[in-house]
Specification:
With 174 residues, the protein is mainly alpha-helical. The protein has 8 helices and no strands. Bound molecules: heme C (HEC).
Length: 174
């Protein structure tokens, strides 16, 4: 029994020292243009996000709803000032900011999130995703504003009322 426990202990010590050395000497890339260094990193990150959202997303009935054209228009305006630089708009080509992100930035001009439940999209905007370019807007937008953007995205980019569609076709200046 004793040699076995000593063996387990040595493995733990070697792994701990090895892990510390990898960090101390910076033996993995820090650059945003490098490929992910660890196999399974992307899978693990996506899995953790999915489970966090499933546990915490708001459930219907959602506040400030049901969706109206006025809510969608307010959301469109907030989207253009806070999000389009990364996620795009009908009036602009993909920005350099979006192109340079380490984690690829979904372009809502190509694939929207109108299939997702509102609660899921709300969670993503409120909390963001740690260690990606997706910010948390909790401290900078009110709950009402985040719901307005959520209702805008839920309506679908090919289904917008005319006033919101005109905003969606503006350029974000890049
Ligand atoms: C600085 C760039 C940046 C800004 C600004 C930004 N995002 Fe993101 N966003 C990202 C990135 C990168 C991801 C992908 C994260 C991932 O897949 O791990 C993302 C993911 C998302 C997703 C999930 C998309 C999907 O297909 O599941 C939603 C929804 C979203 N963002 C909404 C918004 C909204 C709304 C705003 C503005 C209030 C915003 N984002 C602002 C970079 C950004």
């Amino acid at each position: 029994m004793r040699p076995f426990l000593l063996g387990v202990l040595s493995v733990i010590v070697v792994l701990a020292v090895g892990g510390f050395a990898v960090v101390w000497f910076g033996w993995f890339p820090a650059a945003a243009d490098a490929p992910p260094p660890f196999p399974g990193e992307k899978w693990a990150a996506n899995r953790v996000v999915k489970e966090n959202i499933a546990r915490e997303e708001p459930q219907p009935p959602y506040p400030f709803g049901p969706s109206t054209d006025a809510l969608v228009l307010a959301g469109a305006k907030l989207y253009m000032t806070n999000c389009s630089v990364c996620h795009g708009s009908a009036g602009s080509k993909e920005s350099n900011v979006a192109k340079g992100q380490y984690v690829p930035t979904p372009q809502f001009t190509k694939h929207g999130v109108d299939d997702d439940p509102e609660g899921e999209t709300y969670w993503k905007i409120e909390h963001g995703y740690r260690m990606t370019g997706m910010p948390s807007f909790k401290g900078s937008l009110s709950e009402e504003q985040i719901w307005q953007i959520t209702y805008f995205l839920k309506r679908g980019m090919s289904n917008l009322p005319p006033a919101a569609d005109a905003v969606w076709h503006q350029t974000h200046g890049d």
